[in-house]
Design goal:
Blueprint lengths: L1 H33 L2 E7 L5 H14 L6 E6 L6 H12 L5 E5 L5 E3 L1 H8 L2 E4 L4 E3 L12 H19 L6 H9 L3 E3 H6 L5 E2 L3 H8 L3 E3 L5 E3 L6 E4 L4 H9 L2 H20 L5 H18 L5 H20 L4 H15 L13 H27 L13 E4 L6 E6 L2 E7 L8 E8 L2 E6 L9 H13 L1
Parallel strand pairs: 1-2, 1-11, 2-3, 3-5, 4-6, 5-8, 14-16
Antiparallel strand pairs: 6-7, 9-10, 12-13, 12-15, 13-14, 15-16
């Protein structure tokens, strides 16, 4: 009976414990469900198609996962206009409030980044940051005055279209475009270009909690961010690879390295690996360069450099053609990407190093290929010239000889007996021309040689 009561008590304890655990876990889920979430995306790259697509997807995710707001931590020198416009359009169309925060200290929102900062529902900066210098930079050369005015007026009107609806100072914002003016965090706040200065994410959310903002459609919304949990949206492996590959320096190295591997495959067919790897590298480089603004005049310079290398190797220009090719290659690489900001251009160090290395390797390989094509194939009778032959019958003047294990008909200017050692000096079609091999001089003793030399001197 005592054992039965003990089992009852143990079962009761387990049941109560299980119920408490279930209710506790349910309460935890309920509390977690009530805690507001703020998604966070870090933009610390140039503004180009890869970073633009990544940020647009982050905005779409924040609109679908129940986040109270999307916090974009930004540090960018700027970038391409079309990519910037895609980001601004996504921010303006977001149902979830978007907070753009220039951080950490030392960061900047330059050029296209300034347009993104001003498009946000809340524009914020950390102490020690800057924003502005948003004058339009033309990617493919400087246009005429009329075209320049059109583009600048379009950029200014685009900025005013949403800055005024955000309740910020449109005149100060437009000055960043018209005269490339830049503002510190304090100047931006005083000029009403931004809404708040904060030293950290937590301080920023604390100051914004309960603040009323005006959405782009004019509707007013109060931010409820008390106790919000920040969820960092991490880049996928795909985005990381694309972001690394879209670097023009990496794309250029892939293009040059792939071209050399393909050339190596053509010169040593059947190896397969260099050709496959080179093709992959060239395709990846073309894909990356296709995402960037390319100057076609620079492409012509690269093609011209290749032609000059081939001419130098084939005809020999005493190095003049090779030097001209290296110069064309260097200028072509330096101007290949029409970068709106220096960070999107090809580094001069990379361009010069790659030009010198590629030029030297290409010249060496092309010369080897040209020499190999000029060298005649040693087949048939051509291959036997200079070989040793043995008379199989008396040659007076024609007969059969044994050369390299083969029987050939030969003719000689001097009769030769059977077994005579002959030397192949040429051929007339399939008839070899042979001559008696020079008889080796017999070795003489040192005493005989010395006596001969003495007699020669006395004479």
């Amino acid at each position: 009976m005592g054992r039965f009561e003990s089992r009852i008590r143990n079962a009761f304890r387990l049941t109560v414990g299980a119920l408490l655990a279930v209710f506790g876990f349910t309460g935890f889920l309920h509390v977690s469900a009530q805690q507001p979430i703020v998604d966070k995306f870090v933009l610390d790259d140039t503004i180009q198609p890869v970073s633009s697509d990544e940020l647009v997807r982050a905005i779409a995710r924040a609109n679908s996962d129940g986040a109270r707001a999307l916090l974009i931590q930004m540090d960018t020198p700027g970038g391409m206009v079309e990519s910037m416009r895609a980001i601004v359009a996504a921010i303006l169309g977001s149902h979830v409030p978007v907070i753009v925060y220039v951080s950490p200290s030392g960061a900047r929102a330059g050029s296209a980044g300034f347009f993104i900062l001003e498009s946000a529902d809340v524009a914020a900066m950390a102490p020690g940051t800057e924003a502005g210098a948003a004058h339009v930079v033309f990617e493919l050369g400087k246009p005429d005055t009329t075209e320049m005015q059109k583009v600048e007026n379009d950029a200014e009107a685009f900025l005013r279209s949403y800055v005024t609806r955000r309740g910020r100072n449109a005149e100060a914002a437009v000055a960043a475009v018209a005269s490339s003016k830049s503002y510190t965090a304090e100047e931006s706040l005083n000029q009403r270009v931004i809404d708040v200065i904060a030293s950290s994410d937590e301080q920023l959310l604390s100051e914004l909690n309960g603040r009323e903002i005006v959405r782009i459609d004019g509707a007013k919304q109060t931010l409820q961010l008390a106790g919000a949990r920040i969820v960092l949206l991490r880049s996928t492996v795909r985005d990381q690879l694309l972001g690394w590959l879209v670097d023009p320096n990496i794309a250029l190295l892939f293009l040059v390295g792939g071209a050399l591997l393909i050339y190596l495959e053509f010169n040593t067919p059947g190896t397969i690996v260099p050709g496959a790897l080179g093709t992959l590298m060239v395709l990846l480089a073309i894909f990356a360069l296709n995402l960037l603004p390319i100057r076609y005049t620079a492409v012509l310079l690269l093609v011209g450099a290749t032609v000059l290398f081939v001419l130098e190797a084939k005809f020999g220009g005493h190095g003049v053609l090779a030097i001209a090719g290296i110069i064309c290659l260097t200028f072509g690489m330096l101007t290949l990407v029409a970068a709106p900001v220096p960070q999107m251009g090809v580094s001069p160090y990379v361009a010069i190093s790659v030009s010198l290395g590629f030029g030297a390797i290409t010249l060496f390989l092309v010369r080897l290929a040209v020499r190999a094509r000029k060298r005649k194939a040693a087949l048939g009778a051509d291959a036997l010239v200079g070989s040793r032959a043995t008379a199989m019958e008396p040659l007076a003047p024609e007969g059969h000889v044994l050369v390299e294990g083969e029987i050939w008909r030969a003719v000689t200017s001097q009769p030769a007996p059977v077994g005579a050692i002959l030397h192949v000096v040429g051929h007339d079609g399939m008839l070899l021309r042979v001559e008696p091999a020079p008889t080796p001089r017999p070795l003489e003793s040192p005493a005989v040689g010395e006596a001969r030399d003495t007699a020669s001197r006395l004479a």
